[in-house]
Amino acid sequence: MEYSTIIVQREGRIGIITLNRPEALNALNSQMVKELISALDSLNQDESVRCVIVTGSERAFSAGADIKEMVNMNSVQMAMTEHFFPLWDKVGRYPKPIVAAVSGFVLGGGLELAMSCDIIVASETAVFGQPEIDIGVMPGGGGTQRLTRAIGKYKAMEMILTGKRINAEEAYKFGLVNAVVPKELFIEEAKKIATKIAEKSPVAVKLAKAAVNKALEVGLTQGLDFERELFYLLFSSEDKQEGMKAFIEKRKPDFRGR
Ligand code: CAA
C-alpha cells in the first residue's frame, strides 16, 4: 500500500511508523486509520520486525480525531462506518510490543492511540489531554477506560470532564508515561527501549505482553492461571533452551522466535 498520511521505516528489528499530516497536527482521519492498520499488519507479518515504534512530529504526536471529517457525521454514519474502531482494536490487540514516542500535542484520539501502545516515551514538551468535552462529545477511543486505569478515577475524571491538559512531568508523576526526555531525544529513547525488547525472545515477549494485558481484564486468580499456562508453554520453545544454555555458557543468547 502507498502511504500518504504516515511514513513507515524499518531499522534493524524495529518497525517505525511516523504519523505525517503536519498541516492538521497529525489529526487522525479515515485515510490515516486505513494506512495505520495496513502498516501494522505488514510489520506484524514481517518476522524480522520484533518491536514497533509509533511516533509523530516534535510539535504534535496527534491532536486527536479529525474534527473537520467528523463535523457533519451523525451517529448512524459513525456506527455504520465504525469510525476509528478497527484501529483501536488493531493496536489494542497487537501481538508485538509497540512503543509510543510522543512530543507536543497528545490529545483526544492521539492520547488514546498512545495509551493503546505498551510503553510511552515522552518529550519534555508533550502535553496530554482528552479535550473532547470542549467540542460537545466525550472520548470514544478508550480514553475513559485506559486513562482511568492509568492514572486513577479522580485525575482522569478531572481531565475528561474539564478538558484539562497535563504536561510531561505531571504525566510521568501520574504513571501515564515511562520516561520524559529532552525533545531532541524522544525518538532515540524509544529506539533504545525497542532495541532492548527486540533482543529478547519474540515468543517470550509476545506471551509476556499478553499476560500483562490480561491483568487489566480479569481477576487475580484467573490472571495467575493464564500466566502459569503461558509460562509452561514457553518451556517448549527453542528460545527457552537457547536462553538458559547461553546463561550457563556465559554467552549472549541468539533468540530466533522458535
Ligand atoms: N482535527 C482537525 N484539524 C485539526 C485538529 C483536529 N483534531 N487539531 C488541529 N487541527 C488543525 C487546525 O484546524 C489547523 O488547521 P488550519 O490551519 O487549516 O486551520 C491546524 O491543525 C493547526 O492547528 P491550530 O491552528 O489550532 O494550532 P494551535 O497551536 O493554535 O492549537 C491545538 C493546537 C490546541 C492542538 C488545537 O488545534 C486544538 O485544540 N485541536 C483540537 C484538539 C481536540 O479537540 N482533539 C480531540 C478531537 S475529538 C477525538 O479525538 C475523539 C476521540 O476520542 C476519538
SSE order, one letter for each helix or strand: EEHEEHHHEEHEEHHEHEHHHH
What ligand species are in this complex? acetoacetyl-coenzyme A
The total count of strands amounts to 10
Can you summarize the main beta sheet? 6 strands, mixed
Which of globular, elongated, flat, extended, rod-shaped describes the shape?
globular
Describe the structure.
The protein has 258 residues and is of the alpha/beta class. The chain is 47% helix and 16% strand. It has helices at 30-45, 67-70, 75-81, 85-92, 109-116, 143-151, 153-162, 168-173, 186-198, 202-215, 220-234, 238-248; strands at residues 6-11, 14-19, 51-55, 60-62, 98-102, 105-107, 119-123, 127-129, 166-167, 179-181. It is globular, with a radius of gyration of 19 Å. Residues 24-25, 27, 63-68, 84, 105, 107-109, 112, 131-132, 135, 139-141, 143 line the site of acetoacetyl-coenzyme A (CAA).
Write the layout of secondary structure elements.
Layout: E1 6-11, E2 14-19, H1 30-45, E3 51-55, E4 60-62, H2 67-70, H3 75-81, H4 85-92, E5 98-102, E6 105-107, H5 109-116, E7 119-123, E8 127-129, H6 143-151, H7 153-162, E9 166-167, H8 168-173, E10 179-181, H9 186-198, H10 202-215, H11 220-234, H12 238-248
Parallel strand pairs: 2-3, 3-5, 4-6, 5-7, 6-8, 7-10
Antiparallel strand pairs: 1-2, 8-9
Helix pairs in contact: 1-4, 6-7, 10-11
Acetoacetyl-coenzyme A (CAA) binds next to α2, β6 and α5.
